[in-house]
Amino acid sequence: MTESTPLSSLGKGDGLHQQVLASFPLCDLAEEDLTRNPLFCKLLATLAQHVDQTGLTASLRSELDKAEQKLQSQRRHWLRSESLHRGLQEMIQDCSVRKHHAIVPPDQTMFHETMEKCLLVAQCVRQLDPSTTTNQDQPSILGLNTQQVMELMPPEKNVQRMKQSLPRELEKHLKKKCLNLLAYYQPEWENESEGLKNSKLSHLSVQLDNEQKRAKGMKETCRENTVLLQRQTQLYLSELVKCIQLLQSLILDHRLKTQTDLDRKKLEYFEGKCELVLQKIKAEMVEIQLDTYTADAISAHRKIREKLQSELKTRRVEKQSVEMKLASFEILGRDFEALAEEYCRLLQEIEAKNWALKEFAQYNQK
């Protein structure tokens, strides 16, 4: 997207939101954030015309690319010298290992010893030679200088012979390492012919480069998928929270609406249950009465009741006549009350004497 691209060409609504999210994948933004803040969304859309996905401007990206190219060039130069140095050290180590397992030809021994001494002298000279970043006035190591160390070089004849054999030996060593790498990368080619291995080896760098690019692409895809998964997770969680809140409100409303009906049904249930219990009690009482009062007992009770009612009626009549007599006696006053008491006392004495005579007569008859 160039700087001259108008804002209207970015799209509207959901399309604008998707383009803004795609333009800033490293920002932790969700589509809801852009929807709630439309001005901020427009600001990001305008900013996307001047920066890339990493947040760098075009000029800064150009300078960064140039610096990256320079760094890559220096890195390749360093890797070339470093790989050459390590290859030479590996050749020396391989020779030392072979000495313990087999007899090494004298020329090979001389070659590796000369190369080892040359590497050690070169390393010491490099340590003694101050670079532009070090202090020129610092004292030398152990009081040595470059000329004194160079005197330890092997004889010139051995050095020249070593230099003549070095390219061939180094090529053999590097080829062996490449074949080992090929056997590790593609084990099925280990038992193939030398020519086929060389042919396959010529394409190994391209294959490794393609594999590296594919790995970077997969890594980038994985990163994008991670960002997308995080956004989808946030969106899912927000939607889940909304669903939970809606479900809680539905449950609360449903509970409030159905509580009255539930209470009414419970009341009807308990009323019916109480009525059933009362009817059962009445049925038990009737059953007890039926078991207790037979037809003969009811007939006898009815006769007894009739007799008691007739006697009660007779006693009520007698009571009424006695009450009338008492009322007539009360009219006579207090004088008659003494006579009545005397009369009662005499009646009691008469009854007592009659009882005594009756008992006496029964005793004489015996």
TrEMBL record:
<dbReference type="GO" id="GO:0051011">
    <property type="term" value="F:microtubule minus-end binding"/>
</dbReference>
<dbReference type="Pfam" id="PF14735">
    <property type="entry name" value="HAUS4"/>
</dbReference>
<dbReference type="InterPro" id="IPR026214">
    <property type="entry name" value="HAUS4_met"/>
</dbReference>
<dbReference type="InterPro" id="IPR029327">
    <property type="entry name" value="HAUS4"/>
</dbReference>
<dbReference type="GO" id="GO:0070652">
    <property type="term" value="C:HAUS complex"/>
</dbReference>
<protein>
    <recommendedName>
        <fullName>HAUS augmin-like complex subunit 4</fullName>
    </recommendedName>
</protein>
<dbReference type="GO" id="GO:0007098">
    <property type="term" value="P:centrosome cycle"/>
</dbReference>
<dbReference type="GO" id="GO:0051225">
    <property type="term" value="P:spindle assembly"/>
</dbReference>
